[in-house]
Amino acid sequence: MSKSLIDHVLLSSNATDIISGTIISDVSDHFFTFVHVPGFKKVNKSHKTISTRDFSLNNHTHFKTELGTADWNSVAATNDIDLAYDGFWTTYNTIFEANFPLKRIRFNKNRHKINNFMTRGILV
Predict the structure, then answer these.
(1) Rounded to an integer, what distance in angstroms lies between the CA atom of residue 102 and that of residue 97?
(2) Which residue did the predictor score with more confidence, 119 or 88?
(3) Environment class of 99 (CB within 10 Å of its CB; exposed 0-12, middle 13-18, buried 19+)
(4) Nearest alpha carbon to residue 31 among 43, 22, 39, 44
(5) Given Cys at both, which of 7, 45, 113, 120 links 33, Cβ 3.0 to 4.6 Å?
(6) From CA 62, how far away is CA 100, in angstroms rounded?
(7) Helices (H) and strands (E) in the chain — how many of each?
(8) What's the angle, vertex CA 24, arms to CA 18 and CA 25, rounded to 5?
(9) What is the pLDDT of residue 68?
(10) What is the pLDDT of residue 64?
């Protein structure tokens, strides 16, 4: 049987009355290390959220249908390229936002990529 100290507890505190120890238990072959700092307040972390859009086939179909039935007369009737583009972009963006609204969802490291290089296999 060998013994080792493999648990590291790093703490940034000026407290002088810190209590620490080891809990011996038969639950595991590993003993639990603890640190208690009187007056230490836990900081509530807000959950990370990400913004996403639902580009499902159903939403794409509705989007294409609305683009096809939109009134593009304001775009086609003007000779001013800036006004035509503004009219086009306003109509297009309104339809896009209606069919693919931004949704804020809670970030889950098991489902969402932390970095772009992460594949589905890495997440699994």
Answers:
(1) 8
(2) 88
(3) buried
(4) 22
(5) 7
(6) 10
(7) 4, 4
(8) 135
(9) 95
(10) 96
- Point out which residues pair with 49 in neighbouring strands: 106
- List phi, psi (to 5°) of 70: -70, 155
* Confidence grade of residue 7 (pLDDT, cut at 50, 70, 90): low
Q: Give the containing element (helix H, strand E) for 103.
A: strand 103-106
DSSP letters for 17-40: --EEEEE--SS-SSPEEEEE-TTP
- Tokens read off for 6: 């493999």
Residue 61 C-beta-side C-alpha neighbours within 13 Å: 3
- For the stretch 89-123, pLDDT in tens is 999 999 999 999 999 888 776 666 666 676 767 76
Alpha helices by DSSP H, the chain: 57-69, 73-76, 81-99, 120-123
